[in-house]
Amino acid sequence: MMPEPSILLVLALVLPVAGLLLALVAGGRHAGRIALLLTPVGLAVAAAIAVGVVRADEALVYHLGGWAPPLGVALRADGLSAILLLTTAAIIGATGWFARAEFRPAPGQVEGRASLAFWTLLLALWGALNLVFLGNDLFTLFVALELLTFSAVPLVCLDGRAGTIEAALRYLLFALFGSVLYLLGVVLLYGAYGTLDIGLLSDLIQREPIALAAAALMTVGLLAKTALFPLHLWLPPAHAGAPAAASAVLSALVVKASLFLIVRLWFDVMPELMNPTAAQVLGALGAAAILFGGVLALRQARLKMLIAYSTVAQIGYLFLVFPLITRPESVPLAAADLGAELVAISVSTSAWSGGVLQAVSHAFAKAAMFLAAGLIAQRLGHDRIADLGGIGRALPITVLAFGLAGMSLMGLPPSGGFAAKWLLLMATIETGQWWWSLVILGGGLLTGGYLFRVLAPVLAGASEPVTLHAPVARYRELVVLALALCSVLLGFVRLGAFDLVQIGRLTTAGMGLP
Amino acid sequence: MIDGTTLFGLCAAALIGFGLFGLIVHPQPLRKILAFNLLGGGVFLLFGVIARRGAGAGLSSDPVPQALVITGLVVAFAATALAVALLLRLAQATGRITLDAAASDAAPTQTQDADS
């Protein structure tokens, strides 16, 4: 007998896809209306899933057509999925409201190409993200990743300018490289174990060359999609060139989807393969991303490019979770020498919740920042950082939202970013890996530096009168402020979320959680 | 004596190697797209080999990988179509079919000037 709330998992997938088909058929002004009507429903479904997970105190599972794996395909929502579903629904909804003014057919026009494309792609993106968070089968996840790529790439070049088409093409080529490596790993795993269901695989998988090769291929493929340094080259032009609403969802959500799959792969599918050396390598790449992204962000002349490089840096923090979460009982280097022997791994819970909190608070903060940059660019007609003087007077709410979001990125208390970085710092001390704390603190300084570069001219006032362009509707400013406030307020809810992220983790028992 | 399954397995490995090499080494997008297809072909052939090796219960091959290959083919076809369409638009807009790293970093910023 299946638990009743599991039907919600199907609903979370059906809603965006049905909306997408309806929007495509109805077209015109209806496309936007359908999307905006669906977002509150989707948010309610995501909230219901989260409540269901907390009530059941275990993951919700739905077997498609009543066929259990290995014959059938399962959907599964654990605590982490539930949190990410909620985040996704909230950010898609807010972005939709923000974009309402931007993407509607011009007055007197029945159909706008950009508007129809934007709304259908936004719904497709939402559906694909939900499938990534709910899929419990490596091939389903491959399809979800591809759907995500196909809806994200056209969003980059919605305006059809040569520069954005080029950015979209580069993004697509990186993404295809990533997905084909992922698929190759899937083939090898199927060949070795005859199943792709995550639950079954985690029981069967052993530390042997074919599983290690598959893990390496899939990880590298997913890293290319997550834009971890040094595979980040596609991200800044793509995220900076897209329209503000599209940049917000791309930076806040899309890069997190492939990261989520890396987490699934390492902690759910193959916890036995977790190797301290590999975890240190991932952490080192994350550290390089933090420093490199931060320094490059300092050097940008354009606001949107600066925010895009800040995404490169913030992704780095998420990869620090890998070395921090796996503390071998012995010293890391000695454990690596033992080679194939299973290392008793104890999980640092503060690293795990710190990572989740960083992912969610960055999602809200970055969405707020990109939308704020969009409003500033609309009001000023440009986004040159040097000439931002006086915008603080013209758009006070937007600038406040930008500052609040920046506070969260920097990790100032009491924001969500502070709580996340604090938990990560605690984990560095708990696990005795002090060198990562230097990176976390240095990254915070760099973040402070590049945000100061933006906020100093914004708050200083203009030396000469600023010429203002199109006015900005008040509700769009409030949407941005709401997103920024979410990212700050997350700092207060960390204790509640702490339990939720642990629910339904396959590895909880095996890894001896404290 | 080398049997059919091994031979096809080796072919798949070779295709994957060529495809990966082409995807990483060639700077032109069109060649990258072709290399991606070569690589995809290798992966799908590997699926076929695994279907043959994993056959049980008196079947000549395991049907699951074949079903996966069909889905994979559709995805690869759609990806190729999208990439070629983007490349065509790029050629129409700029008259070139290369991705110039220096130009593209500047591109979004230059065009935002044009908006203002």
Description:
Chain A is mainly α and 514 residues long. Chain A has three domains: 1-136; 162-273; 275-514, no CATH class. Chain A has 21 helices and four strands. Chain A has helices at residues 7-26, 28-56, 79-99, 113-134, 138-156, 162-193, 198-204, 209-226, 235-241, 244-269, 276-298, 303-319, 321-325, 332-337, 349-380, 391-394, 396-410, 416-430, 434-460, 474-489, 494-500, and strands at residues 60-63, 74-77, 326-328, 345-347. In chain A, the strands form two sheets. In chain A, strands 1-2 form a two-stranded antiparallel ribbon. A two-stranded antiparallel ribbon of chain A has the order 3-4. In chain A, helix 9 (235-241) packs across helix 10 and helix 17 packs antiparallel against helix 19 (434-460). Chain A is globular and about 70 Å long. Chain B is mainly α. Chain B has one domain: Helix Hairpins (Orthogonal Bundle). Chain B contains four helices and no strands. Chain B has helices at 4-25, 29-53, 63-94, 101-115. Residues 102-116 of chain B have low confidence and may be disordered. Chains A and B meet through helix 5, helix 6 and helix 9 of A and helix 1, helix 2, helix 3 and helix 4 of B.
Write the layout of secondary structure elements.
The complex is a heterodimer of chains A (514) and B (116).
Chain A: H1 7-26, H2 28-56, E1 60-63, E2 74-77, H3 79-99, H4 113-134, H5 138-156, H6 162-193, H7 198-204, H8 209-226, H9 235-241, H10 244-269, H11 276-298, H12 303-319, H13 321-325, E3 326-328, H14 332-337, E4 345-347, H15 349-380, H16 391-394, H17 396-410, H18 416-430, H19 434-460, H20 474-489, H21 494-500
Antiparallel strand pairs in A: 1-2, 3-4
Helix pairs in contact in A: 1-2, 1-4, 2-3, 2-4, 3-4, 3-10, 3-15, 3-20, 4-5, 4-10, 5-6, 5-10, 6-8, 6-9, 8-10, 9-10, 9-12, 10-12, 10-15, 11-12, 11-19, 12-15, 12-19, 15-17, 15-18, 15-20, 17-19, 17-20, 18-19
Chain B: H1 4-25, H2 29-53, H3 63-94, H4 101-115
